[in-house]
Amino acid sequence: MFIQILNGLAYGGLLYIVSVGLVLIFGLRRIVNFAHGSLFMIGAYVGFSVAAIGSFWGAILIAAVVLGLVGALLDISIFRPLQREDPIVTVLVTFGLLLVLEDFAQFVWGKDFLRMPVPAMFAGSVSIFGDSFPAYRLVVIATAALVGLGLTLWLHLSKIGLYVRASNADPLTTAMQGVDTDRVSIIVVALGAALAGLSGTISAPLLALSPSMGGYILIESFIVVVVGGLGSFAGAFIAAIVIGQVHNFGLVYVPWAATMFPFVLMVAVLIWRPTGIAGSHV
Amino acid sequence: MTNTVTEESMVTPSQPLAYTYAAGIAIVAFLVGAGIAALVASNLAMTLLTQAVITGLLATGVGFLIRQNGMVSFGHAAFYGIACYAIALAMRHGIVRAELAIVLALVVPTAIAFFLGLVIVRIPGVAFSMLTLAVGQAFYEFAMKARNVTGGEDGFSVKLPSTIFGIKTAIFQNPHTMFVVSWGVFVVIVLFLTMVATSPFGRLTAAIRENEERSRFIGYETVLPRVLVLTLSALVTAVAGVLFTLYNTFVSPDVLHWSLSGSALIMAIIGGPRLIWGPGFGAIIYFFAKDIAGDISEHWQAIIGLILIIVMVLLPTGLGGTLAGLLRRRVGYG
Fold this sequence. Notes:
- The complex is a heterodimer of chains A (about 280) and B (about 325).
- Chain A is mainly α and about 280 residues long.
- Helix content of chain A is about 75%, strand content about 5%.
- Chain A is globular and about 60 Å long.
- Chain B has about 325 residues and is mostly helical.
- Chain B contains 16 helices and 4 strands.
- In chain B, the strands form 2 sheets. Chain B has a two-stranded antiparallel sheet. In chain B, strands 2-3 form a two-stranded antiparallel ribbon.
- Chain B is globular and about 50 Å long.
- Chain B starts with 6 loop residues before the first helix and ends with a helix.
- Chains A and B meet through helix 4, helix 9 and helix 11 of A and helix 6, helix 13 and helix 15 of B.
C-alpha cells in the first residue's frame, strides 16, 4: 500500500516539475506553450545522449542548460513579438513548433523507441517497511521535492519571484509599477523550459523514449494545470500529487480504465469549479 | 482573431437575394466538382481529393467554431471518431440497419458535444483549447483500452450492406463517385452554415464572440448560443466521420487521436476560418502539399509546422482569406 503511494508520488512529482513550467510562463505572459511537452521530449533525448557518454548528473545538468537556452530563444523569437496578439496566436504558433520539434527529434534520434538505463548507482532497490522499492524512484521523488522547495523559496525571496507573483495576480498593475516584463520573462521562460528538460531526463529511465512522448506528457500536464487552476502554483502542486495517486491506484486496481481516471477527475473538478481547484482567474 | 469585423456585417444585401446568390454559387461549385470527377482519370488524384474533401468537412466544423465562437478546438477528432465507431460497432453487432446506424452516428456525437459543451464553453480562451485537447484524447484512450468493445489498437473493418438509402455501397468506395458524393455534401453544408452565419442566430453568436459581457448586458443568454455553435460544429464533424467510414470501411483509434484534431485545425487556419469555405480550401492545399512534399523530403511534419507558423504570423486571414481579399480588390468591390 505504502509502496503504491510512493509510486504515485514519483509520477505526480514528475508531472509537477513539467506542469510548473507551464504555470510559470502562463503567470507572467498569459500564454500557454503547446510545445512544452516537446521541450520535455527533447530534454529526455539530450539526457539520453549525454548519459550514454558521460555521467547521469552531467546529463541532467546539460539537458537543463540546453533547454534553458532553447527557452530563452523561444521567448525572444516567439513570445515577445507576439505579446500584443491574441494569446491563441501563440498557441497555434507553438503548436507549429511542436510539429517541427517532433520531426527534429525523429531526424536526430530516429523513430524507434529508445531506452535509457537506470543510472548504475540507483539501479538497486531499497527496503521500505519490508517491501522493496526501486531506489531510482526515490531519487525522482527527492528531486521533485527539491525543485518544489527551491521554486517556492525563489518565488518568495527573490526580486524576480516577487515580480512573477505580482504579474500573476495582476499583469497590468505590475507593469504600471515599472516592472519590465520582457527582462523578467526571458529568465522565467528559460527556467520553465529548463525544468521541462530536467524532468525529461529524470523520467527517461522510467519511460520509453519516442518523438511522440511530448504529446502525451503535454496532455497530462494540461490536465494538471487545468485542474489546479491556470496560473496557480499551489493548485498545480495539489493537482499533480492527486493525479499521480489516481493514475497509480488506477493502474494497480483497474488497469483497463486507469488512463481514463485523470480525464474523469478533470471533468468532475471543472463541473464543480470551472476555474480549477485554486483558480480565481483564467 | 477575436476582434475583427467579419464580412457579413459590412456587406448587407437583402437577405433573400443573398441566399439566391449563395445557392447559385453552390450549384455552380457542385457542377464544377462533378466535372472534375468526370475529367480526371487518375485514381491517385481522385483518392487525394476525396480524402481532402472528407477531412475538409472535419476542418469546416473546427473552423466554424473559430468563426462563430472564437474558440479553438484541439479535440474535434473525438466527434469525428465517435461517428466512425458508432457505425462500425452498430454494423459489427448487427443491432440496427445501416441507415439507422448512420443516423445514430450523427446523433450520438452531436448529443455528446451538447452536454460536454454545457461544461466546457464556460471556460474561455486558451484554457478551452487545452481542455478540448485533453477531453478529446480521453476518447482515444478509451478506444485503445476497451479492447473487447473496440478491438483496441488494431481496429476492425466495417461490414456494410450492398445498398444504403437505396444507393449502391460500391459508389461510396470508388474514389471517383465518392468524390462527387462528398463534394455534394460539402457544398450543401457550406451553404447551410452560410445561412446559419447570416441568420439572427449567427449574428448573435458573432456578437457574443466579440464581447460576451456586453451581449449579456443587452439581455441575451450567452452560454446556450455558444453551446449550440459547438453542437453544430460537432454535427458537421460527425458527417465527415460518416463519410470516412463509408469510404474506408475500417476504423481504428487513429480516427480519435489528437493529431487528427491538430491536422484539421491546421487546415482551418491555413485556409482561413473567417470564410466558411476556407477550411475546406485549406484541406485541399494540405493534402496536395503533403503529397508533393512527401515526394521531395521526409520532413513533411516540420514543413507543415513551419507553414502553420508563417500563416499565423504573416497571413492571419489564411490563404483563402488572402486570396478572397486580392480578388475583391481586383473586382473593386468591398
